[in-house]
């Protein structure tokens, strides 16, 4: 058995749907190299990116798609959309074991989700939602940045937004973020952490001033909803100080709403796919606002990437379990760590129980 | 600038920690309704999660604070 820090038997965002088409596409998720492509009918399919014959990557040219089959560019082993080998070179008999591991996938809310773990346990109803990303009522900008750091560092970072004041000053940070107390809720069973920070009277950072046109001080609400292990939602509500609050029916016409979505997908033990998206319910057709938010949020994400890459180097150089110090701002991040630890242990226990005695070929 | 003691999660096993306004202290509630205060979030989480299994049963105790609203991304 291989023990990892990944939570198995979980859904992870593997890609944006727009990344996968009729070209072979590969991405490593939780240490597993996975090949993605779209069938002629438009369905996304996922299978191991290694030919069963001599382990050649099927994403590597001259491997290619031929209709709804993948032809290995090394010796011509050919696989169907279900990963089963349909032909081998020079002989009619296809070995019974010639099949690629296939992965359950689900395209939803502009993401392609992949199930890492026991296929029998893959339940699509467990996938958390981010409906704004492909809603006609919102305009979304998005991207993905590679992070050379373990995924837990990004979880820590996003669960404690007080760092905005210091790491992202001049973009999204103002003094009030770090100065305002938080409320934290945890549903251990559902694997959800909710961190709420409501600023009644705060400076408006450039990120929101330029996109909304607000010139004065603001009411700024940050409500984080983290669905471990992968999906992070930041419900951001911005309104001029003195504007009415949300209506009892949920309507909120006097405020601007930005839904900031991250998908935190482990690549390896020490690298992470940092998917980010910013969806807004205002200036829907304004390309200048879209360009500004894309550029500005990417800058903020890259500020995190630089800091976390450096932090990874430091942590990797220190003995495991080196002492940290946690304070009130870390309440949500600590809860997320506990849930992730439990998920990792549960996935490891399940894979141990299901592991065959020995593989003989 | 005071925090709203939001209650957004509505599961039957929700733990809640509020940063007590005007102080450096945290007050945490077990899902059974019992609460305790601390200045250390590590210690507070440990004590909440280690709360003895002598509860009347999940979902039978009154939830602390106002009624939950909605969980948008669920």
Automatic annotation (TrEMBL), chain A:
SUPFAM superfamilies: Bet v1-like, ISP domain. GO terms for molecular function: dioxygenase activity. Residues 11-114 form the Rieske domain. InterPro entries: Cholesterol_7-desaturase, Rieske_2Fe-2S, Rieske_2Fe-2S_sf, VanA_C_cat. It comes from the Bacteria. The keyword Kinase does not apply. Keywords: 2Fe-2S, Dioxygenase, Iron, Iron-sulfur, Metal-binding, Oxidoreductase. This is Aromatic ring-hydroxylating dioxygenase subunit alpha.
